[in-house]
Specification:
Two copies of one chain form a homodimer. By secondary structure, the first copy, chain A, is of the alpha+beta class. Chain A is built from eight helices and eleven strands. A four-stranded antiparallel sheet of chain A has the order 1-8-3-6. A four-stranded antiparallel sheet of chain A has the order 2-7-4-5. A three-stranded antiparallel sheet of chain A has the order 9-11-10, with helices on one face. Chain A binds a DNA duplex through α7.
Chain lengths: ~240, ~240
DNA sequence: GCGCCGCCTTGATCCATGTCAAGTCGATCC
DNA sequence: GGATCGACTTGACATGGATCAAGGCGGCGC
């Protein structure tokens, strides 16, 4: 019998790709074992909702693989993506049973889930998890506030460059030198637009403009080569 | 000898105006006494910085009275106010000794301060404080993400109306009926502009436009009367 | 009272970005 | 191969809000 990929991961937290960055990162062996015993994996196919705003949400989770978005939508259909969730990012809110955002799988997603109640109890008793959770919350808060600067003050070009640099950073590429970097954009043009508070056409135009200026190359629409990251980052010298 | 207002407050947490909303809100008597023993008051005059970005910050604090802002500034001087802090709001980040934002006193400020290290220890041992802190962090995160929707998607008029309704809500007015409401704007036009991602002229024009439409009256530039809050809120029917 | 100074308002104009409308490109299916 | 479809790009034009500029108004010192 074939073991599914999910089952496979279940067997082995030690080799989990997000072991050292997710909610379990600051845990000692004892806490780690408890988390291990509680966890269960869940797959969500690309395009599907993980949870909808206002919905009851009785799990919290870490993203093991894939990309998700947090978003809010106005009644007349304007949408703002308020967060892009990458592997190791945390989903859900301990101490609250309903969801404030729409959470959508952008790609196929593997989630490492915990039922909320037992997880909350564990947070109470396990100081490593507790500290990590608090740190995650404050890190997210700082990130959200930084994004407010982007949404409120930056030009369309600066927004695009900021986004590209964010992807470069989160790609955690080993190279330190100013080698050309190739990145796969985790979001479609439409999702980028929504994340950056722009329209899809403006995103597309700015990407073309950066290409014309030699700051990026477009291998495909979603695959970008940055010949010189420091030159791209220099576009932000007035922002930041 | 005259006792200053700060000294006066020091003597009596029980009658503290933010007792039931600040970091101490979920504490039992024992925790409360510990906080009480640790706390010290600090006054900051209007216009002065509480802390600057990158600065070392060895205290955390609750706002007892007054208004402060969190903000970020680009190197070329564009500024985004990322948060408006009102009485009971929390300043600082346990587990981190430096400050990510500029924090400024908009009005004269009374802060209830705790040295960070002992406070962190108390967070470890006192579950009421710990829970409150986590809740505060997640509430702030939700608020920040809601603000991202405002910055990214709403029109200037919707932004202004959202701000006015925010002030109404935080004013915690006792009336439930649709009585006319009078509010004092905590921020100048300039600060409103920065908070809403607009320019001062646009803020001013939108305020005038709301006045012409009979949705608000301007007793002075900073003192607003809202004859019918539900009619004002109806301006947001497409947003939200 | 008068002059000064911040803060706010209003008007005229501009421009970055949105909107509307065609394409183009690449993948998939038959 | 060609039809189809979704994702992206490009062009032409419109516009909301920014920018530039000129007052108005209220508080404060003298």
């Amino acid at each position: 019998m074939k073991i599914s990929r999910s089952e496979d991961l279940r067997l082995d937290c030690q080799h989990c790709p997000v072991r050292h960055r997710a909610i379990c990162a600051a845990s000692d062996d004892e806490e780690f074992d408890k988390l291990n015993a509680m966890k269960f994996y869940k797959s969500v196919p690309a395009g599907q909702a993980v949870a909808l705003r206002g919905e009851k949400l009785d799990v919290v989770a870490s993203i093991v693989s894939g990309v998700a978005t947090l978003s809010k939508t106005t009644v007349d259909g304007r949408m703002q993506i308020t967060g892009m969730l990458l592997p190791s990012d945390f989903i859900g809110r301990p101490g609250r049973d309903s969801c404030e955002h729409d959470i959508s799988a952008v790609t196929d997603l593997t989630l490492c889930c915990f039922r909320r109640r037992p997880f909350e109890d564990l947070v109470e008793s396990a100081s490593g998890i507790r500290k990590r959770l608090l740190d995650i919350a404050f890190d997210e808060l700082d990130a959200a506030r930084n994004w407010m600067l982007l949404l409120g003050c930056l030009t369309a070009r600066e927004k695009i460059v900021s986004f590209l640099m964010l992807v470069v950073r989160r790609s955690a590429l080993p190279e330190d030198a100013d080698q050309p970097v190739r990145i796969d954009l985790p979001l479609s043009r439409e999702a980028m637009a929504s994340y950056l508070g722009l329209t899809i056409e403006t995103v597309s135009r700015q990407m073309s403009s950066l290409r014309k200026d030699g700051l990026i190359e477009l291998e495909t629409a979603r695959r970008v080569i940055i010949p010189d990251t420091s030159r791209l980052e220099a576009e932000l010298e007035n922002a930041e």
